[in-house]
């Protein structure tokens, strides 16, 4: 899922929120991330049990149940 697709998913389920640069490095920022389980699949026969959208829905449910979770994790 691209960042654009993720932003669209968030916009559909939450609200339209313009993403702006923080202006400083943040604790959990990553400059570039590519997640590819093909080596694990080839080596150990691994395959994810849940898809991206299912995981995002779980994160959303958690965020709704715990409104201060980002603040508590030190990411804001």
Q: Which secondary-structure class do the elements indicate?
A: mainly alpha
The general outline is extended
As residue ranges, the low-confidence spans are none
User: Which band does the percent of strand residues land in?
Assistant: under 5%
Helix content: 40-55%
The SSE order reads HHHH
The termini sit apart by: 24 Å
**Count of discrete alpha- or pi-helical segments spanning 4 or more residues:** 4
Major sheet details: none
Number of strands: 0
- What's the rounded overall pLDDT mean? 85
Radius of gyration in whole Å, from Cα? 15 Å
Task: Give an account of the 3D structure.
49% of the residues lie in helices and 0% in strands. The protein is mainly α and 76 residues long. It has a domain at 50-76. The longest helix has 14 residues, at 52-65. It is extended, with a radius of gyration of 15 Å. The two termini are 24 Å apart.
């Amino acid at each position: 899922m691209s960042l654009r697709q993720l932003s669209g998913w968030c916009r559909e389920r939450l609200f339209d929120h313009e993403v702006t640069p923080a202006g400083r490095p943040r604790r959990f920022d990553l400059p570039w991330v590519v997640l590819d389980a093909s080596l694990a699949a080839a080596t150990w026969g691994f395959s994810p049990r849940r898809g991206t959208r299912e995981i995002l829905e779980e994160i959303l449910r958690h965020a709704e149940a715990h409104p201060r979770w980002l603040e508590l994790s030190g990411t804001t």
